[in-house]
Amino acid sequence: MTPTGRHFLQIPGPTNTPERVLRAMAAPTIDHRGPQFAELGLEVLEAVKRVFGTTQPVVIYPASGTGAWEAALVNTLSPGDRLVCFETGHFATLWQEMARRLGLEVDFVPGDWRHGVDPETVADKLRGDTGHRIKAVLVVHNETSTGVTSRVAEVRNAIDSTGHPALLLVDTISSLGSIEYQHDVWGVDVTVAGSQKGLMLPPGLSFNAISQKALEASKTARLRRSFWDWQPIIEANKRGFFPYTPATNLLYGLREGLRMLDEEGLANVYARHLRHAEATRLAVRGWGLEVLCADEREHSGSLTAVLVPDGYDADKIRAVILDRYNMSLGAGLGKLTGRIFRIGHLGDFNDLMLAGTLAGVQMGLIAAGVPIDPTGINAALDRLQRP
Ligand SMILES: *Cc1c(COP(=O)(O)O)cnc(C)c1O
């Protein structure tokens, strides 16, 4: 069918870019060494700290989230250092693969892709490491491949309970600006983030929020780095500049996106995402389908992964929904390919956008011949009629 009207981009990132952000980016590119840029640089570098919950430096890279993963590792670690990583899903798997390729030694704790990081296991691993060979614990806060959110504050407490000095590195690429996060209060050492999910920008920026302890570690970390090196960037950032040509127009967009988050208030932003996630689960269960996340404490606020019944191909269902209803849903990744689809409900989003999304999913499931209860959506609509 020839698509008409607005496309529904309901993948869990990139998310819908608000008009305000698009307009803010539609500006002439300026001299990145001039006074006008310095003003923009100083403003965004300061404003971005709030969404991380930090007063410490945040480095901004002109790169996708994967670049900021690499930056977090190469700035804090040395060849042969040992890490503990958790197989929460596809993104956790990719991050630890990157660590191995960089010459780090990884203890990869297996998982079933339906649970987050178990704080008890973190404590056990560190308690067993009396020689302090483990230098860092890696956690993906919101596993975008599964819709499971790990309890980072509890992981921090688990680390503290052992007195172990390992750094805590956290990927918040699909949670920052959508799900509550506190870099300073939770004692995270490096927080990795990206522009194209909760921050509502197009792809192209990524971030490292850096604790004092991580900054200290970077002085002796011996992994090779040049472009990703924090030191020259932090130095230039003091005057609002970058050591290379920054992504000026994306920074205009970032300034506007951060203003929008401030206007709504971060607490309201987080509550909105939790409410939409709850309504989505009500619809999924109303259809008689299963949510992938298996722990009630760990449901993601930014996306919901839905298991399709045996004998049905989730990618075929997604293709029907794209063709008939002009809506993109997230695919199953890695070992979940074909077994799940993912509904993104993060970023610039409201009740009617969710109602439209769920109506499209329901009609698409029926069109694809999946046996569901067609009253499923009603529970979600009931939920949306309450604050
Ligand atoms: C999207 C995502 C990534 C990958 O980020 P890119 O911008 O595609 O490099 C990594 N981790 C998580 C949790 C993500 O959601």
Automatic annotation (TrEMBL):
Binding-site positions, substrate: R342
Keyword ATP-binding on entry: no
GO molecular function: alanine-glyoxylate transaminase activity; L-serine-pyruvate transaminase activity
Database matches in Pfam families: Aminotran_5
Cofactor: pyridoxal 5'-phosphate
InterPro entries recorded: Aminotrans_V_dom (IPR000192), PyrdxlP-dep_Trfase (IPR015424), PyrdxlP-dep_Trfase_major (IPR015421), PyrdxlP-dep_Trfase_small (IPR015422), SP_NH2Trfase/AEP_transaminase (IPR024169)
Free-text function comment from the UniProt entry: Soluble hydrogenase catalyzes both production and consumption of hydrogen from suitable artificial electron donors or acceptors. This subunit catalyzes the tritium-exchange activity.
One of the GO biological process terms: glycine biosynthetic process, by transamination of glyoxylate
Organism of this sequence: Micromonospora rhizosphaerae
Keyword Coiled coil in annotation: no
SUPFAM superfamilies: PLP-dependent transferases (SSF53383)
Keywords: Pyridoxal phosphate, Pyruvate
Signal peptide limits: none
Domain Aminotransferase class V: 8-332
Protein name (database record): Tritium exchange subunit
Modified residues annotated as N6-(pyridoxal phosphate)lysine in this record: K197
Family statement drawn from the similarity comment of this UniProt entry: Belongs to the class-V pyridoxal-phosphate-dependent aminotransferase family.
PANTHER family xref list: ALANINE--GLYOXYLATE AMINOTRANSFERASE, AMINOTRANSFERASE CLASS V
Assembly and binders: Heterodimer of a large and a small subunit.
